[in-house]
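Z., the sequence and structure:
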Amino acid sequence: MKNLLGIIVAAFLLQGLIFAQDKPAPVASSGVRVEKIVVATSVENREPVGENTEFQASAGTLSCWTKIMASSTPTTIKHVWYVDNQKVFEQPLEIKMPSTRTWSTKSVHPGSWKVDVTDESGAVLSTVSFTVK
């Protein structure tokens, strides 16, 4: 009987962990949430093309694409680009609709890159990391 009870408890705990992973990212105090963030070789028809986490330097430029949910608009987010832990570019992006797809583009060179998405107060909402070889 103890084994059966243990299995039932474990199943409920596992189910809770699975459901917790499916929840959307928490909304920042600014009311802005990043639904999705990717780096891609281009954006066509407002959708990312060539999503990846590793790129060749020959790509030249890359785009950081985000899907944003905002409880109040207008508001502004920023894409803050870093290479090898050095800030190299910052792009403010105005959010005019509650659900918006937006992106910034940057010329890249070899290194370890990341892009932070921040709200108007500078709080980091999400980060994507990638490598350029």
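Confidence is low (pLDDT under 50) at residues 7-14, 16-26. Strands lie at 32-40, 42-44, 47-49, 54-55, 61-70, 75-83, 86-95, 99-107, 111-118, 124-132.

Let me know what you think.
H.
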